[in-house]
């Protein structure tokens, strides 16, 4: 479907597509879809040729899958493969696109703002820069549950005053769910404080503390690569992570992608924006169902669909076509 056709089809729908970020990867992802739809392996071949190594093999074998510089291009490619299957099967073009962290790049590819080849090269570099910005073992991330956002911020500030580094809110995922990132000792301290204050704390199995000030050196280098990459405004609006807004020009888009490395992901506000625009159905276009489950908590979202298997894909296709009045 051309960019103009996508734009026209998207204007009359109440559906949004959500693209997941790092953490959604799993060994063997999309294997079932690949058996039924040739476009899956074709998409992985296209992306692999761009980065110079076999992304499908990593996805299926799991070898090196959790290394950030591999995870990012593999996940992006998986999401775009699923997006292409959806369109090939006659799925509705959504009114909005949004991606969580890395998923913002998937959203931009789906919206024809960046080519798949350029995007996988960008996120491969992004992963390398993020990995090298903080020595192994010195950074950490943790999910803080059952506390107000303001209280989590207070706990971070109390620890930061001690002058041993920094810890910050990295992802505002939903009410009562904030991910923090920073120096490992300070992340550990906030986790303990959260538990003492009646909250829950879960350490995340990541090697890189994303979306915090420790990533500023990586962002400075990454900005140069963004400047050299052909980018257009997307044909379907993409809601940006850093401000839950839509870019008005390409310079703004590049700036937001750079800032995304060291600023928090405003996912709660992103989902509120979709609700305010009358979105009633969301589709998670990537492995798993983390974003779909978060969306189900929201009062105005009637249905949230993962589409990472053939049965899930078909269920979502039919349900949304019926809900949108395209078929009886």
From TrEMBL:
Q: Which residues form a coiled coil?
A: none
Record Pfam families: Acyl_transf_1
Q: Which InterPro entries match?
A: Ac_transferase_dom_sf, Acyl_transferase_dom, Acyl_Trfase/lysoPLipase, Mal-CoA-ACP_Trans/PKS_FabD, Malonyl_CoA-ACP_transAc, Malonyl_CoA-ACP_transAc_FabD, Malonyl_transacylase_ACP-bd
Limits of the Malonyl-CoA:ACP transacylase (MAT) domain: 18-313
Q: Does the keyword Transferase apply?
A: yes
Any one GO CC term of this protein is: cytosol
Reaction catalysed? holo-[ACP] + malonyl-CoA = malonyl-[ACP] + CoA
Keyword terms = Acyltransferase, Transferase
Please name the SUPFAM superfamilies in this protein's record: FabD/lysophospholipase-like, Probable ACP-binding domain of malonyl-CoA ACP transacylase
- Annotated GO MF terms: [acyl-carrier-protein] S-malonyltransferase activity
Query: An example of a Gene Ontology BP annotation on this entry?
Result: fatty acid biosynthetic process
Q: Does the keyword Cell cycle apply?
A: no
Which EC number(s) does the record attach to this protein? Answer: 2.3.1.39
Q: Which PANTHER family match?
A: MALONYL-COA-ACYL CARRIER PROTEIN TRANSACYLASE, MITOCHONDRIAL (PTHR42681)
Q: Which family does it belong to?
A: Belongs to the fabD family.
Q: This chain belongs to which protein, by name?
A: Malonyl CoA-acyl carrier protein transacylase
What is the originating organism of this protein? Acinetobacter defluvii
UniProt lineage: Bacteria, Pseudomonadati, Pseudomonadota, Gammaproteobacteria, Moraxellales
């Amino acid at each position: 479907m051309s960019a103009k056709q996508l734009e026209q089809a998207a204007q009359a729908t109440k559906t949004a597509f959500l693209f997941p970020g790092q953490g959604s990867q799993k060994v063997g992802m999309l294997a079932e879809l690949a058996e039924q739809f040739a476009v899956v392996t074709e998409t992985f071949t296209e992306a692999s040729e761009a980065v110079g190594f076999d992304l499908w093999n990593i996805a299926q074998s799991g070898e090196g899958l959790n290394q950030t510089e591999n995870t990012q291009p593999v996940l992006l490619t998986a999401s775009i493969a699923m997006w292409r299957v959806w369109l090939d099967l006659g799925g509705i073009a959504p009114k909005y696109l949004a991606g969580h962290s890395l998923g913002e790049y998937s959203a931009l590819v789906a919206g024809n703002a960046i080519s798949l080849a350029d995007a996988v090269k960008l996120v491969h570099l992004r992963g390398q820069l993020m990995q090298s910005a903080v020595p192994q073992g010195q950074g950490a991330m943790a999910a803080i549950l059952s506390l107000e956002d303001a209280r989590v911020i207070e706990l971070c500030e109390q620890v930061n005053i001690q002058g041993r580094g920094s810890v910050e809110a990295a992802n505002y995922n939903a009410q009562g769910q904030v991910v923090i990132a920073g120096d490992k000792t300070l992340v550990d301290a906030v986790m303990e404080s959260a538990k003492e204050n009646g909250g829950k704390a879960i350490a995340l199995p990541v090697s890189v503390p994303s979306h915090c000030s420790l990533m500023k050196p990586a962002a400075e280098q990454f900005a140069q690569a963004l400047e050299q990459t052909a980018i257009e405004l997307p044909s379907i609006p993409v809601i940006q992570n850093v401000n839950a807004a839509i870019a008005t020009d390409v310079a703004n888009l590049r700036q937001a992608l750079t800032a995304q490395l060291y600023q928090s992901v405003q996912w709660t506000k992103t989902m509120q924006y979709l609700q305010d625009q009358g979105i009633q159905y969301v589709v998670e276009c990537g492995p798993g169902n983390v974003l779909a489950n978060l969306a189900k908590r929201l009062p105005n979202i009637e249905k949230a669909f993962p589409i990472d298997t053939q049965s899930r894909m078909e269920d979502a296709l039919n349900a949304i076509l019926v809900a949108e009045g395209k078929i009886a």
